[in-house]
């Protein structure tokens, strides 16, 4: 595919004004880097690509952004080689292709070479969104024998809350692009049948992102140079006005996608501000095959980590959920991740609400019996609020631990690195100094590692090796009290690729909450003896495809049992797994060896377009 196939609607505003992708890349701030990357990226085999990448990465983790730029060039030049390379070394390269490196990449997205992959839908195109998607589809997708564009999945964001970095507007495109790469590498989606999307409704100024970067008003910003138009919702939160109502921007986009690609096309919300994420999910979840990974996927993998922790603590236990119902949980931070996990434990796993304690900046979230008083900020926080005002200073995390006596401490604060202090961890250890006490579970989920509530080394040190630890960003293997420990990476990529692939393949009508608990169990049950020996609550990323297949199989069986599946894939786990495996996309390594420019997928289709 040509770099400059005409696109007037589905490219970002500034790129169209510049004359297209090639013209944009000739900008003085880009042309030298564009030429340099083209000179470096010469690999024709997986081994050559790995050699070139390792050379860049050998300079230190601060150079992983250079490796990211290399990978984006490789993805455009040779998609099959790109995916084969990622699949060959997932533990090494997934942190470069996606989190944590993608966060910095999004902050600097306008300063890196741009490629055609990615559909930008502007709020100025309301009433004409279908035409925008159709233009992109005509340039980037194939048609089936009936003349319909083939699209299995779309990941869409408005850039309003990119990881923990805040509002980056159209620079947030790196997230849908990277997410869909994981859909392919981990889940088996055909990359030519996926679309990353940014809904451009404006961008905040420097106050809208955590690093106070000049994004919207900088020379290289690609999107609309305007503030987001917001209003107060019924819950009292600031929401994007254009997203709601009968002619809402998000609803029009989702209806247009289904009109073009069919109701089987999975539409995944990604990195919307929490104030919009919850109401948008509630509005659309029963109308489309859709979910919000920040709320539901993060919740699922957090619960998977808890279940994995139980397997470490009680290897002979087979009913993990029965054990979960006996535990007490403390969620520090009340964003979408923690609220989603708390709700999943209460509503699906059956944990009594009194055993699920959440905090916000006011301390423990509580409400009066009549709901007239409380520290909750929205209805999602109210749903997990404890009954009655705490009789102690609940802004003091050590005091909260002492009073609530949690078995599990989960942090997803985002902006409070190091808040799990020595005193907090020591308090967690003391909780387990009781008859039948085991080891505390401590999960620091904030990304990147610089924002983590605690590091792996400190958690082990402060607990004298007693804590079982997991984190959002992977920490290196450590030796603790003479024993090797590999902290589990509590990352959504263990859940969303397999869950999405299973739901898509069986033609599920919707994605209910039950799927996320099922996925969590499937991930935990994928732990092997090696993982357990290393004290890891989640499987090694090296087995990510295997885990995704386990999740997909479990989700399909759930969908069939619930009457949601429209396509029957098998009567049992063995037959369903076999069917799914046949449908997973893989790069054709024989074709890779034969020719760089004559690549075919394993289905024997025509050479893939450049992504």
From TrEMBL:
Residues 75-285 form the Malic enzyme N-terminal domain. This is Malic enzyme. Its cofactor is Mg(2+); Mn(2+). A divalent metal cation binds at residues 270-271, 294. The keyword Cell cycle does not apply. (S)-malate binds at residues 161, 447, 491. Gene3D superfamilies: Malic enzyme, N-terminal domain, NAD(P)-binding Rossmann-like Domain. The active site is at residues 98, 179. One of its GO terms (molecular function) is malate dehydrogenase (decarboxylating) (NADP+) activity. It comes from Noctiluca scintillans. Belongs to the malic enzymes family. Divalent metal cations. Prefers magnesium or manganese. The lineage of its organism: Eukaryota, Sar, Alveolata, Dinophyceae, Noctilucales. Residues 295-560 form the Malic enzyme NAD-binding domain. Pfam families: malic, Malic_M. Keywords: Metal-binding. One of its GO terms (biological process) is malate metabolic process. It comes from the Eukaryota.
């Amino acid at each position: 595919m040509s770099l400059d196939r005409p696109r007037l609607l589905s490219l970002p505003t500034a790129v169209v004004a510049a004359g297209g992708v090639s013209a944009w890349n000739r900008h003085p701030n880009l042309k030298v880097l564009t030429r340099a990357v083209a000179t470096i990226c010469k690999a024709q085999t997986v081994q050559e690509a790995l050699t070139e990448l390792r050379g860049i990465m050998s300079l230190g983790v601060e150079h992983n952004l250079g490796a990211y730029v290399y990978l984006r060039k490789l993805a455009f030049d040779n998609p099959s080689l790109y995916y084969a390379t990622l699949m060959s070394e997932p533990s090494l390269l997934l942190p470069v292709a996606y989190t944590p490196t993608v966060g910095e990449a999004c902050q600097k997205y306008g300063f890196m070479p741009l490629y055609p992959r990615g559909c930008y839908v502007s709020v100025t195109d309301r009433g004409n969104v279908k035409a925008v998607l159709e233009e992109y589809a005509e340039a980037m997708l194939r048609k089936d024998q009936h003349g319909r564009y083939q699209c299995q999945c779309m990941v869409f964001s408005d850039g309003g809350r990119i990881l923990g970095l805040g509002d980056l507007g159209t620079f947030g495109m790196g997230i849908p692009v990277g997410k869909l790469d994981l859909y392919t590498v981990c889940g088996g989606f055909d990359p030519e049948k996926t679309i990353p999307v940014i809904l451009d409704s404006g961008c905040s100024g420097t106050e809208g992102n955590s690093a106070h970067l000049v994004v919207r008003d900088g020379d290289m910003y690609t999107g609309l140079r305007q503030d987001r138009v917001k209003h107060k919702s019924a819950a009292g939160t600031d929401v994007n006005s254009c997203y709601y109502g009968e002619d809402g921007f998000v609803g029009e986009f989702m209806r247009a996608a289904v009109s073009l690609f069919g109701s089987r096309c999975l539409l995944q919300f990604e990195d919307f501000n929490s104030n919009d994420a919850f109401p948008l999910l509630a509005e659309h979840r029963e109308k489309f095959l859709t979910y919000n990974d920040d709320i539901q996927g993060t919740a699922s993998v957090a619960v998977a980590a808890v279940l994995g922790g139980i397997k470490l603590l009680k290897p002979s236990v087979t009913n993990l959920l029965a054990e979960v119902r006996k535990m007490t949980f403390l969620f520090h931070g009340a964003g979408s991740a923690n609220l989603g996990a708390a709700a999943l434990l209460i509503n699906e796993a059956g944990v009594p609400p009194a055993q699920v304690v959440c905090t916000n900046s006011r301390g423990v979230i509580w409400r009066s019996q009549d709901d007239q008083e409380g520290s909750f900020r929205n209805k999602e926080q109210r749903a997990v609020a404890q009954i009655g005002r705490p009789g102690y200073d609940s802004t003091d995390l050590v005091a909260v631990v002492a009073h609530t006596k949690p078995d599990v401490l989960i942090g997803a604060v985002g902006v409070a690195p190091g808040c799990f202090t020595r005193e907090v961890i020591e308090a967690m250890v003391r909780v387990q100094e009781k008859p039948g006490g085991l080891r505390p579970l401590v999960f620091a989920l904030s990304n990147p590692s610089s924002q983590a509530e605690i590091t792996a080394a400190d958690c082990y040190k402060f607990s004298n090796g007693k804590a079982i630890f997991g984190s959002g960003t992977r920490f290196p293997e450590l030796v603790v009290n003479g024993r090797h420990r590999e902290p589990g990476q509590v990352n959504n990529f263990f859940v969303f690729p397999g869950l999405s692939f299973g739901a898509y393949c069986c033609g599920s009508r919707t994605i209910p909450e039950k799927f996320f608990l099922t996925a969590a169990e499937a991930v935990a049950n994928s732990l092997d003896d090696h993982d357990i020996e290393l004290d890891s609550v989640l499987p090694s990323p090296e087995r990510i495809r295997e885990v995704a297949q386990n999740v997909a199989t479990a989700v399909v069986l759930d969908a069939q049992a619930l009457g949601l599946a429209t396509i029957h894939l098998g009567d049992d786990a063995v037959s369903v797994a076999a069917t799914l495996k046949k449908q997973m996309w893989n790069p054709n390594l024989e074709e890779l060896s034969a020719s760089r420019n004559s690549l075919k997928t394993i289905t024997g289709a025509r050479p893939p377009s450049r992504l």
